[in-house]
From TrEMBL:
Keyword list, A-Z: NADP, Oxidoreductase
Ranges of residues in domain Enoyl reductase (ER): 82-393
Domain of life: Eukaryota
CDD domains: QOR2
Cellular compartments per GO CC: cytosol
SUPFAM superfamilies per record: GroES-like, NAD(P)-binding Rossmann-fold domains
InterPro entries: ADH-like_C, ADH-like_N, ER, GroES-like_sf, NAD(P)-bd_dom_sf, QOR-like
Protein name: Probable quinone oxidoreductase
A Pfam cross-reference name: ADH_zinc_N
Name of the gene encoding the protein in the UniProt record: LOC110689300
MF-aspect GO terms: mRNA 3'-UTR AU-rich region binding; NADPH binding; quinone reductase (NADPH) activity
Keyword Acyltransferase: no
Organism: Chenopodium quinoa
Length: 399
């Protein structure tokens, strides 16, 4: 249990991604460890949500661990590119954390479409063999020499680099791990770190969604799509979502899509033109790529933003500049890593995300859980469009 300290809180209400005062207070506590006077003692529930000590600061001061013992754990390993069958359940050595590192025992691991790109060799893994996975939540079990601000027993989350979360334990750079608020359980946290941080930079940075905008979100019932639609709706946008089935359409409506298009059955370009009375949308968030990219450009209004952030159906064909010039469009192909480079950026984004989850602005859908050893089945389901919301892997030994 952390300690409560009272202090004055700056006005976070200018921040449009913090959609109610509860989110603002939770973010403030996340970043500073302080609870503003104005929120105490009237809101006991809020106090429970945001009690965190020593949230962020990391220093290198003294050695904390000098063990040379080998730690063997179970992990998924890939020795060659290919289908889900190349995911092997093996024993691996974790080693001890070095300076600036921590060793984390994972409680829950997020499954992401990017894991499939790496498995297939669409993206190149830095090593071969390698352990996949770019998102997890776990307990710190060892701290490298010279690190303070992080201790054994802390619950932390990470998303992105380094790869290797499909493992019972892994080594992480301490500055890529963020504290998980007590209000957010490990499975929920693991299901939103990568996908939620992506939704955060998409609506807040790559294109700033505002009230009055109309946005088009492809794969609206997916892991990122679900959070993206909710966030865009809460910011006041009119949200149009595309999905492949009626079941996914129902979820997308619940997640704040004002209009849902089943793009396997309907021409989404003409539907978007109808919905917007021929004007088009301010921004398209396109993670499907090859099958949708050309149509997405057609859906944009003059000076609209094409945000291509994935390629679940394959890489789109090259775009001639004339296609951009036709409507003075903006085109970006962003990646999460470039929006969370500094620790401050990472903490700001994670703070907003956790605050909006804790305050109920974002509903997290952990719709599928698999044992870590069954990662191949989990990836098969994701690849075959059989999932909605988030998919989480649970280390076998923790059950
Ligand atoms: N750039 C970044 O920073 C960043 C970060 C995170 C994720 N991403 C990208 O965001 C996308 C979503 O990731 P996610 O993990 O949340 O996955 P997801 O959206 O849960 O799953 C992919 C969805 O894409 C749709 N899809 C359309 N055509 C497909 C095809 N040919 N094969 C497979 N799926 C197809 C399916 O939805 P329907 O059945 O409704 O069509 C499917 O459920 C991925 O492309 C991923 O690479 C990018």
């Amino acid at each position: 249990m952390g300690c409560l300290r009272l202090g004055l809180v700056p006005n976070y209400h200018h921040n449009p991604s913090l959609l109610n005062s509860r989110s603002s207070l939770i973010l403030h506590k996340y970043k500073t460890g302080f609870l503003p006077c104005s929120s105490f003692p009237s809101n006991k529930n809020l106090f429970r949500l945001i009690t965190i000590t020593n949230p962020i600061k990391l220093n290198k001061v003294r050695a904390c661990s000098n063990s040379t013992e080998k730690t063997m754990v179970k992990a998924i390993r890939v020795h060659e590119f290919g289908g889900p069958e190349v995911l092997k359940w093996e024993d691996v050595e974790v080693g001890e954390p070095k300076e600036g590192e921590i060793r984390v025992k994972n409680k829950a691991i997020g499954l992401n479409f990017i894991d499939i790109y790496f498995r297939k060799g669409v993206y190149k893994s830095p090593t071969m063999p390698y352990t996949p996975g770019m998102e997890a939540v776990g307990e710190v079990v060892a701290v490298g020499p010279g690190l303070t601000g992080r201790k054994v027993g802390d619950l932390v989350a990470y998303a992105g680099s380094p790869m290797g979360s499909y493992a019972e334990e892994q080594i992480l750079p301490a500055d890529r791990a963020v504290p998980v608020p007590p209000s957010v359980d490990p499975i929920t946290a693991a299901s939103i770190m990568l996908k939620g941080l992506t939704a955060q930079y998409l609506v807040r940075s790559s294109f700033k969604v505002e009230a009055g905008h109309t946005v088009l979100v492809h794969a609206a019932a997916g892991g990122v799509g679900s959070l993206l639609c909710q966030w865009a709706n809460a910011l006041g946008a009119t949200v149009i979502g595309t999905v492949s089935t009626e079941e996914k359409a129902a979820q997308a409506r619940e997640d704040g899509c004002h209009h849902v298009i089943i793009y396997k059955e309907e021409d989404f370009v003409s539907r978007v033109k109808d919905i917007t009375a021929g004007q088009g949308v301010e921004v398209v968030y396109d993670s499907v790529g090859k099958d949708t990219f050309q149509g997405s450009l057609e859906c944009l209004k003059l000076r609209g933003y094409m945000v291509l952030f994935g390629q679940s159906s394959g890489s789109p064909d090259p775009v001639p500049l004339s296609a951009i010039a036709a409507k003075s469009l903006f085109l970006t192909r962003p990646t999460l890593m470039h929006y969370t480079i500094t620790r401050d950026e990472l903490l700001e984004a994670a703070g907003e995300l956790f605050a909006n989850v804790a305050s109920g602005v974002l509903r997290v859908r952990v719709n599928h859980k698999f044992l870590l050893s069954q990662a191949a089945e989990a990836q098969t389901a994701l690849e075959n469009r059989q999932t909605t919301g988030s998919v989480v892997l649970i280390p076998d030994a923790s059950l």
